[in-house]
Structure formats: structure tokens, C-alpha cells
Amino acid sequence: MNEFIEKVARMRRMQNKYFSTKERHYLVASKEAEREVDDELKKLGKTVVSAEDRQEQQRLF
Fold first, then answer.
1. Which domain of life is it from (predicted)?
2. How is the chain split into domains, by residue range?
3. In this predicted structure, what is the pLDDT of residue 43?
4. What is the mean pLDDT of the chain?
């Protein structure tokens, strides 16, 4: 979880830098960081869905 928080913090820093400077390299870094956060959220979503599936399967038996 700590790694995820660090990724989100980096993403926000890059976004803030881009919006305050409009420098292209901050935009590129911001988009890269956002992709990393999105990937982590997708992994988390799969984990949550898997846990829900397991609960539902347990109710069936």
C-alpha cells in the first residue's frame, strides 16, 4: 500500500508541476505516473472482484 501512495503522490507532484509551468517533460512524466496508478488500481480491482467471487462461491455451498 505504501508503494501505491508514493505513486499517487508522484503523479500529483508531476501534475502540479505541469499545470504551474506547462513544460512538456512534466506532462509526459505526469501521464506516465498516471498510467502506473491506473495499473495499480486495475490490479486492486481484480483483487476486490476475486474476493467478492470467493464470497459468492462460499454462499453457494
1. Bacteria
2. 2-60
3. 87
4. 86
pTM of the model: 0.71
Q: How far apart are CA 56 and CA 58, in angstroms?
A: 5
Cα gap 61→56, rounded to integer Å? 9
Q: Identify residue 30 by its one-letter amino acid code.
A: S
CA 55 to chain centre: 25
Cell reading at 11: 503523479
* Closest of 32, 37, 31 to residue 9, by C-alpha: 37
Task: Give the other-Cβ count within 10 Å of 33's Cβ.
Answer: 19
**Is residue 59 a contact partner of residue 30, using CB atoms and an 8 Å limit?**
no
pLDDT tens per residue across span 29-55:
999 999 999 999 888 887 766 666 666
Place of cell 499545470: 19
